[in-house]
# Entry
Amino acid sequence: IMPLIGSYMRNYVYGPEDISLKEVPFMLKIGRFILNGKVDRLELCENVANIFDFKTDDVLDFKVGSNAMMYEAQVKAYSVAVWRNYRPRKIMTRLHFLKPDKCSDMEFGEQDILKAERFILNALDGIDEASMGNTEIRECDYCRECAYSVLCGIK
# Structure
């Protein structure tokens, strides 16, 4: 755990003028859906909100970009929630993969937030309408540990 702590300490030193919040809870209504979560770290300074999400997965250097794509919906939900609550002019997001100490950054302006809201709503609508009925169920080694195994009936 010490290398992860060292990576964090090397990258996140703040001045006294910054407002830095940790584990910021949010609840977000998009369409008929309500999302909630916690932003690992939120910094507010001069009309800019910086959102940090720390990832502790063990990721290979060359896979940071593809792993970051898996968190696209999460980053967009955090950005929409922060924009609605604080109305910054710009939002900067950083997914920090503590192992291998690599980051993936995104920037959002107001138009990007509106697109993110549509993206999230479309994703939630798709999940709401999804059915496992047309999906081939194949058991694998991980099935017994999977939190979603109740959806496919594997116990």
Remarks:
- DSSP finds five helices and five strands in the chain.
- The first helix runs from residue 2 to 11.
- The radius of gyration is 18 Å.
